[in-house]
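Hi support team,

I'm opening this ticket because the web form for multi-chain structure prediction keeps timing out on my end. I have pasted the exact lines I submitted so you can reproduce it. The total is 745 residues across two entries, so I didn't expect it to be a heavy job. Is there a limit I'm missing, or should I split the entries? Thanks in advance, R.K.
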Amino acid sequence: MAANKFELTDYQWFAVIVCAVLGAGITILPRTVAISAGRDGWLSIILAGAGACLFALLLWLLCRKFPTKTLPEISVAVLGRLLGTAVSVLYILYAFVLAGAIMRVFVEIIDTWVLIWTPDYVFYLLLLGVTVYVARMGATTLARLMEIITLLTVVVFLIWLTPLGEFNSLHLLPVGAEGVVAIAEGALEAFFSFLGFEALLVFYPLIANQQKVLKVTLIALVFITLLYAGNVILTFGVLGVEHTMLQKWPVISYLRVGSLPFARRVDTVVLFFWTAQIMGGAAVQYFAGTYSLAVLTGRRFHDIWTLVCWPAVFLVAAAPQSLGQVFKVVDLVGRWGGALVLGIVLLLLAVAQVRGLDERGESAK
Amino acid sequence: MKKVLLLVLCLSLVLVGGCWDVLVVEELALAFAIGIDHDVNNPRRFILSMTNPTFSETSQSDTRKILTESYSLSNAFFNLQRQRERILVLGQITSIVFSEEAARSGLLHNIMRQVDQQRDMNPNVHLLIVRGHKAQDVIFMKPEENARVAVYLDKVMNTNFTAGEAPRISASRYWVSYSTAGIDPVIPVIELTGPGEEEKKTDGVIITGLAALDYTGRMQGFLNDKQTYYFMLLTGQNHRSRMTTRLDIDGQVRDTSFYVKDVSLKVKPALENGRPRLALKMALEVDVINIEWDVDVEQEGVDEIIETALARDFQGNALEVIRLTQDWGTDIVGLGQHMRIKYPRWFKDERWRQEYRNAHITLEVKVKVRRVGTLIRPQY
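Hello R.K., no limit was hit. The queue was backed up. Here is the completed structure from your submission:
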């Protein structure tokens, strides 16, 4: 099915998911899973990836009932105006908070490892400038940019392999010794790193080939799961689990072990390219939030909302006063945000099922 | 227009942020190597020595030598900065040299912990321990092969790693070995070379072996150059290994040298009445360079005789290395990792430290000779 100029192709949707999910969380993921699941952290990632695929299935089941509607329209149709609006506002707040959290974590990394003396607000304003601009241009422009960033991600992951010479497989053995409970706990922690693909709730009507949405989404999630698991395996193999748990930014510590003939500090090369990934992740969430606002308020174009909502993202990014608070915010966004979105989807699915709401059925009649 | 605006915005992300962190290369004092010694007058302090290239046409010397006393590494760097007209940069440091006293007392680990927290420090920096001299003697020596000590040290370590003479030990390897349960760190040991009295030896350095450190990061023992080869074979760090030994064949000692083309080690851990038992099986493939033996090497059975003699030689020497590490209480081979993998519930880091000294370790060696030199009759 050929996409028209305002619809997303399969690859564009794949790229949007990759950019929305692969944010700054990957830099702390090895420590997060190591604390819960030890050497079996990579198994937790795979389990979390399976969980994310199940969640994607639920999202798809809901979205396919309303193929021309975004989340605010679905929630109002299913729950009524008052409750539907409340649910939409919660999702919009979640999207803005997630965009702010992504930016803040990245700024913490840059501020710690590369540009120590540059004021934080400079990073926020520069990142927000591009994010607002890209989000304002609409879904297709955003998706085209995500295509380029996704291609760039593949190159970045090749650079990611440079410390491979220090890899020791003994660090990963024995497999499964931490126990099922520990692996499951690790999976729960890791699951929050997969958040972002719930943007499907907003993007679904904009996708050209809706028959393939589930397949493309699952492929993207498997791709991300492999990247996450590979990242954890590499970090454990090079740094060892015990040393990984000592690191605030284990992936940066891992990357610093590598060096290239033309660049001694591989971490700065990766961070340079990763800036685009962060901007992409934030832009997808910002677009999802502002587009939902536009739909909720009955405006056809969301450009006004993109121009006025950025202070909310800025406030979320700038509010934490210390790194400890940043980690708390990330934890809160992951846990409560994830629970919120999952809760919204389950509620909408259940109520739509009970009330027999299905746009496809209605249009057939 | 929109594309231009997007391009400008994207470029600004890369370019504008650097204004606050601008570093002009011409205004930097690049540190390339540092030395750490105890302060004999105050055990809580240490002495840091460093050389920087001056990069100045008007300077009388091409390097600046600096010493500073301090309680902490950061404080030492701040002290060094106050002596320089340029901004001190640590990212280019390629070697850190410790005196043997610093390694034995625990100062080495104290410093390495602090190095781990220096954000701009290169984790691939070489670590070295100097015997018989102070670390500052190494930093301030005048090597004949290269005017700059740091470049010389870096090249010596890299070249000898490539030539299979020494393992590559970096700061990150030290941190990982120190933190990981079931393995202890090692650091190459060097000595100064030169004619005459000890204090006049400033021509260069020689890698004499490896220091074995325990779980506290203190040096407990020293493996000489030959023992280092066996350590490298046991740990799979043999990289283009070339070895010499004296084989007992037909009741005579015969000088032999060979390349080790391939080596594999299998470790079978077991617990017998609560006592760890490790059965090691090593398989080697060697290419004999020369052998002092008056025999036609194409004769049937010659290869087998050499293989048996080499296997005996490997077994004796490698087991000696393991016994030494058991006496020192430093599991530098990492046999504890195999116990951890096989018995994760039994294994505790503290328990292994105690059990390793009395662990029953056996080694079986199998050697395959691929070829014997280039002459039919080596001793003609």
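A quick check on our side: Chain B has two domains: 25-217, 225-380. Let us know if the file doesn't open in your viewer.
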